[in-house]
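Sequence, please.
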């Protein structure tokens, strides 16, 4: 005679277990199968023909158990099970022999110390703060097997919590060793954060041209590009080397001899403008010689 039984189990998680560690364990199908010590073998299979349309796209496994029918008599039994990952847990459906049908739903609830406290469901015994695992079970089996199956499922949940605690401690120790290694060697950078490559300059440095100027006063020509375009040639109209040819330096004006164009009046001698570099000339006189009129200028 088959009997339908439903029950919910709440198991608080230790403070050292993070949400990421718990979710990684729930989504590890092989680890969840190995929680039951009676399972001796498991391997992934294709969906069976009797799978429902919803469960056809789930992940299926064939599991083998070692059971004891009578004292001193042991045997093995195989059955199929499907696993479906949820955003906050895992859902399984086991098709076991002797009409045993088990539907389980594992969900992760509660909050971590740095997360806000969320309202909890009443009547299930969930803690107000901290993470916890909720197991909702719906099974159909012979009423004589109900107590045995229920005890087996609770033992599996206790084993899961113990493994989560050990895994969290191992991960915390590995993270602490990694931080100590990076702190001791300051010059070593973690492989997850490589140094960012240097970015090229936004614009090339200005080019200083001495004695280079475009011809006359016009629009200055465009500077030649620093690198050729994709075609490999420079545009002919953007750069003219003749515009950057050096110009001759500007020299001061040449001063020439200046003569007056006004005719001298009678009795006056023509004026003579000496050059700037010319020095006045003086005639030497002997002793007793008198001065006379100046010599006629040519």
């Amino acid at each position: 005679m088959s009997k339908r039984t439903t029950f919910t189990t709440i198991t608080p998680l230790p403070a050292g277990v993070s949400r990421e560690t718990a979710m990684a364990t729930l989504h590890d199908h092989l680890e969840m199968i190995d929680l039951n010590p009676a399972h001796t073998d498991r391997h992934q299979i294709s969906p069976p023909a009797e799978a429902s349309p919803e469960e056809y796209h789930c992940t299926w496994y064939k599991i083998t158990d070692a059971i004891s029918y009578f004292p001193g008599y042991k045997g093995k039994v195989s059955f199929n099970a499907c696993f479906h990952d949820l955003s906050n847990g895992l859902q399984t459906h086991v098709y076991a022999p002797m009409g045993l049908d088990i539907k389980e739903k594992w969900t992760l609830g509660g909050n971590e110390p740095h997360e806000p406290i969320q309202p909890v469901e009443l009547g299930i015994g969930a803690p107000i703060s901290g993470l916890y695992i909720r197991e909702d079970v719906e099974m159909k089996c012979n009423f004589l097997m109900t107590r045995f199956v229920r005890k087996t499922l609770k033992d599996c949940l206790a084993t899961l919590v113990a493994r989560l605690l050990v895994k969290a401690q191992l991960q915390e120790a590995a993270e602490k060793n990694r931080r100590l290694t990076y702190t001791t060697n300051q010059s070593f950078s973690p492989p997850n954060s490589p140094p960012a490559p240097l970015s090229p300059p936004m614009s090339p440095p200005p080019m200083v041209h001495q004695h280079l100027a475009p011809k006359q006063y016009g629009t200055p020509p465009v500077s030649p590009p620093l690198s050729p375009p994709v075609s490999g040639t420079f545009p002919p109209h953007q750069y003219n080397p003749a515009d950057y040819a050096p110009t001759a330096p500007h020299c001061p004006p040449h001063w020439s001899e200046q003569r007056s164009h006004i005719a001298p009046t009678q009795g006056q001698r023509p004026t003579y403008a000496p050059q700037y570099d010319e020095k006045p000339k003086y005639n030497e006189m002997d002793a007793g010689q008198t001065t006379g009129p100046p010599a006629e200028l040519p």
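The beta strands are 2-12, 39-45, 59-70, 73-86, 89-96, 100-110, 131-142.
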